[in-house]
Amino acid sequence: MIFSYFFADYYRKKHLKRLTHSSSIKDYLNHPLVKSNKLIKDLEFLVLDFETTGLDADNDRIISLGYTVIKNLHLLPKTSTHVLINPKQQLTEDNVGIHKLTDEELQNGVSLNCAMEGLLSEMAGRVIVVHFDVIEKSFINRACLLLYQMKSLPMVMIDTLKIEQKKSQHIGPYVKQQSMRLYALREKYNLPRYRAHNAMQDAIATAELFLAQIDYIGRKHLIKLKDLI
Amino acid sequence: MEIEALEIIDFFKATLPLDCSEPEQLELLISKTEVGYRRKGHVLTLKPDFLYLVRKGAVLIEDENEKLFSILGEHQWFGYSNQLLLYTHSCKEDTLYYRIDKQYFHELFSNNNTIENFFVDANLKAGIKFQNITKQNNLLNDSVLSMSRANDAYLVDQKTSIEQVAKLMTKKNITSVVITSNDKLCGIVTDRAFCTKVAAEKLDVTEPVGTIMSKKPISIAHYKSGVEAMLLMANAQIRHLPIVKNKKVVGMITAADLLRKQSHNVVFLINEILVSKDSDDLTMISKQVPLLLQKSFESNMDEHDITYSVSSIGRSINQQLLKQAESLLGAPPVEYAWVVAGSMARSEQIAHSDQDNLLILSDDYQQDLHGEYFSKLAKYVCDGLNACGYVYCPGDVMATNDKWRQPFSVWKSYFNKWINEPDPKALMYASIFFDLKCLYGDSTLLDDLLSDVLKKTVKNTIFQSHMAANALHYTAPLGFFRNFILDKNGVNQNALDLKKKGVVPIVDIARVYALSHGARSINTQDRLKELAETGGLSQSGANDLIEAYKFINLIRIKHQRYQIRSDNLVDNYVLTEEISSLDQKHLKDAFSIVTDMQSAMGSQYQTSIL
Question: What is the ipTM for the molecules in this complex?
């Protein structure tokens, strides 16, 4: 963990030197990565959820993203944000089914560049929380490659799925089991069932799951970031 | 931000009193809302700056006496009044909650009367709801109006003469009257005023009663509970409270009314026992004993009083069974004493326990003539006790056993043998047969026996040493909290047997000193007090032991109360996680007192030379 922090921070500084013009990515890289020995009660978390046209970051697209902020170990609903991205490509039948987003709605969406600028300013100085980090990690990196010619974005990311796997000692092949799905886990922690299924509500759902998980760890005011990564 | 799309908006709209707010107000409210989570069984730390709302789960509110105040579910609020902040809020289920900036909330809705009044009334409603939940459990939770003996308060105008008021109070057998001026409450006169003012100051009894009244008396609203009345009386050091409804006096509640309610349960049960016809009736009645234990605990009774009331019910059941047996079998042919042994004799029962009993028969007893009568009597009573939950003694120390149903002279020879030849078996009996109490019949049989026994035990130092050595058998688990010395036998491997490890050693110590100093008390605390007075024990040593004994028993009762509440079988095995850290500290202190006293006793009675 410590090594990966140094590597990530090294890359952050390296990229920073390369950037001359002020931009949202430069602004993001200006914030040091959160150190893993910090107490989580003192940290701010950005809980994130993407909706994509598929699982392949190279060929699929992000069509919407939602996020919310956790501060003082409480979720702040007012920070909840939903951003639609115009993918400039047709949605396939089955995607519409899942996300209930239509082409028309997405035509009104912003560009990927614009969405990333907003996201980066929210991510700066915060720890990212997602459920099943493969999607968000790969699509963020892909976006950074396209937009800023960076192979990967230095960031500190917590995966609620991994927290759960660690807890249940299922550290094996990285398989998204049925019981590890966000809504199955929420039920386990007696969290409410939400009707809406979009990136923002899923980000909130993930955030609440995260709060439940850390409460179950116990003595949450003594938990350090490294305990969760 | 797309607040209108948030699920929380829908939740707010469906929550009273927010259903009557404007959509824009809800959006503003969300800007001051935070979401938190606490898992089942854990206490919420409320901050006075926030108003709380249950989103999912359940929150249990208990007052400072751990009495249930309210259980909240989805859409219900808490933390709205500062008074409630002092109560314990714990999660009965995993709970997701919203907390909202309180000041902002009230500013936002300052023009909305429905919302503002909701929280003023909520406090009262929570109390009423709580009354409904716990009505069957605690009579003190009823409204004061319902428990005042006379619903009509006696109202007297302040111009009425003292003499007339005194006559009225005597005639109506009341201890206080409310004094009014133009039909408005202006004072109160209690019987005490006639002593402190009229008699002491030699007032003329034709003077108006207004001159002796206590002005501006404290009153209580009619819907308040008996508990609140009690607290009010305690704080103000008064014994009478006028009950007020719509600014009018509608009744009077006195300390005596409250007291009657509190002891009602024990008294009621004993009355039921006394009118019962057969052992089936008694079996039904005895089912209420666990509930009584719980009620007593909830009304914050002293543990000594609790064990005393539970024991007195046990005694009453036993006595009633004997009466029933006599009416069935006819009058006894010779005098007898029905004697109980062990914890029932010491009045130290909590909940049901084994029965230990014996019969001392008069020396006129003749086996051929009277044997059948007493064996039938013993069988009826012991079977009845068993049916009532006082199960058969595993060691067969019961009057049904021929060995323990003997004439006076035989008992005398038994004790002689035990005292003069204290072998292990004799010592095992000591803990049972040296704690005796006559429940029924001719108590002089037991008194004479005990006088004889004590005369011998006081003189016999070898017997004393053996008793003392035997009492050191059970040691207090001092290493308990670091590395739990737990009972390695049996199922409760992670639990501490508070009876064997805590209570029994103290009971044993008290018995050893009582027998060697001729103290006649049977109850452990009484024994210790008597020993302190007669110099058998130092005052501080006795006090320490009493405190330790009380505390260990308190933890034990608490534990059993939880078991009763959750419908479990009652036992003495307390799990460490059940005990709060503060209690653990006290328990440790209690155990070290026991250990100290044990070693002092060991050297005093020279147990090491045995």
Answer: 0.86
